[in-house]
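Hey, I was hoping to borrow your eyes for a little while. No rush at all, and the record is pasted right below.
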Amino acid sequence: MVKAAAGDGTGGPEQQREQGERASAIARRLDRLMAREAARSGGRPPAYRELADRINRLAGRDVISRDTVRNLHLGLNQQGKACNPTVDTLDWLGRGFGIGAGASYFLDDAKAAVVDEQLDQLERAAELRQALGNDGVVNLVTRASALSDGSLRVLLSLADNLRKLEQDAAGTDAAGTGAPGTGAAGQWPGPTAGR
């Protein structure tokens, strides 16, 4: 029999407080995983049923329900008390997101920090691969590689400023307050003008 990850919930106030803190940590980590997946897939986080179906397919049997995923995400069970998942449930939940650490990602702060850093590195690598698919970016990187550290800092600052100008212009145009191709009050929107 698999033991509960956070006790049986029948202990005193201190045990209930610890269980509530653990349930909150699990909920935050699950929320972070869902947000990462939403960012990768165009903005929509996976539905609880989708996650449960994915995990059950991975397991080859029913190991988690949509309601269990929802309760873990909310940090509460059906009675409104802190959820108390088994280690096995958390292990499958982690695997459903491709995390080999499984349950330890949800239960161990140090392990979660290591996994989160690895996920951040994977996202940066994916962004770099995508950027390198753009000939203009490759051209810029090639030219910038010969610059001094000071010049690279100036180039990065310039890129940040240009990106902000384009974002501001896109936000203004989306709100319908500026003429097409202009920023607020007809300001120059950035390097896309005149294309």
Remarks:
- The chain has a mean pLDDT of 80.
- The chain has eight helices and no strands.
